[in-house]
Structures are given as C-alpha cells and as structure tokens.
C-alpha cells in the first residue's frame, strides 16, 4: 500500500512513528495482513507534486493499493480547483493503469475561504471518486473537526493534527481501507 500525501500523512510536527499512516500499518499487521505500507508523503505536497512523483513510486513499489491524501495545499495556495481535479484524476488513472486499487482521502478547507469555495472544493473529491469509481473518504479529519477540538487535537498552528488525533484519523480511514482490501 502506497500512501501519497502531504503533511497530514507525513507526520508533520510529530515524533516518527506517531502518525496515522504508521498506526494504520500497525493495525494491518495486528490483523495478520501481509500488506506493507510505504509512506511517500511530503509536507507541503500539492496534487501537482504528487502527480509528478507518482509514476516513479508506482514503478519502484508496484503497490496493490494506492491511498491519495492530497489537495489541502492546493487550496491553501489558492490553486484553481480544475487543476486539483485534473491532477487527482491523473493520479487515479496512473494508479489504476498500474493495476492498483485506489482510495481517495478528501480534505476540507477552513470556513474563511467562503461557503461557495469550500463546497466546490469538497465536491472535487466526490466527483473524482464518482467519475473514476474509486472509494472516497470525504474528510480525513472528520473525527477531529469540531471547533471545540482545535485545542485538544491540533498542534499550535491549528492546521496539523497532534499525536492524540492520529488514532482518530485511523478510525476515520479504517472502514474504507478494509473495504479496499476486500476488493482484491
């Protein structure tokens, strides 16, 4: 399983091994799964960066599963939604061409971007999932998204989840990962 993500998956601000990707790997092995997890996430990564790196990663690792957790940095940089969508589609196409099952992990933007932009941004993930027939977790941070959770589950920047939040992220992603593994 190849995880291609940004800082949320790259353990930004956390001690190595505390992030949700590592916790997911441990959970898979506890369940006697033989699936090895490769975390190819980079803090600050955009969908364009992921798109450019994915072919080499597919060649190097030949994963049966690809989890894409990208898009948040596109929004933070104000990149056009159409380019985010095109990049996600290209990554799904590349992974499927390499015979990998794909899971898309969506992100949502803070409300200060405006209701219209926030809604359209969230729709990008849903539309790609529908058009490409891939599973989508609409919001990877759903379990920690309540405004009251900011101090409890986020680092001081209020963007990056802290160590306490990581098991909750795994709980959010786990049902989709289980379904993905059953497709094999």
UniProtKB/TrEMBL annotation:
Q: Which SUPFAM superfamilies match?
A: SGNH hydrolase
Q: Which part of the chain is the SGNH hydrolase-type esterase domain?
A: 3-165
Pfam families given in the database record: Lipase_GDSL_2
Q: Name one GO molecular function term.
A: phosphatidylcholine lysophospholipase activity
Lineage: superkingdom: Bacteria
Query: This protein is called what?
Result: Arylesterase
Originating organism: Lampropedia puyangensis
């Amino acid at each position: 399983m190849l995880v291609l993500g940004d800082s949320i998956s790259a353990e930004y601000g956390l001690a190595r091994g505390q992030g949700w990707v590592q916790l997911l790997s441990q959970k898979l092995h506890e369940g006697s799964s033989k699936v090895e997890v490769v975390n190819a996430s980079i803090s600050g990564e955009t969908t364009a960066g992921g798109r450019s790196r994915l072919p080499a990663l597919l060649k190097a690792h030949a994963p049966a599963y690809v989890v894409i957790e990208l898009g948040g940095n596109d929004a933070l940089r104000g990149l056009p939604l159409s380019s985010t969508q095109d990049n996600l589609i290209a990554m799904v196409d590349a992974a499927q061409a390499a015979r990998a099952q794909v899971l898309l992990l969506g992100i949502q933007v803070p409300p200060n971007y405006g209701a219209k932009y926030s809604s359209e941004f969230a729709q990008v993930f849903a539309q790609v999932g529908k058009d490409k027939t891939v599973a989508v977790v609409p919001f990877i941070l759903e379990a920690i998204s309540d405004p009251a959770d900011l101090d409890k589950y986020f680092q001081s920047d209020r963007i990056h989840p802290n160590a306490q939040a990581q098991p909750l992220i795994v709980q959010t992603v786990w049902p989709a990962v289980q379904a993905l593994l059953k497709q094999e």
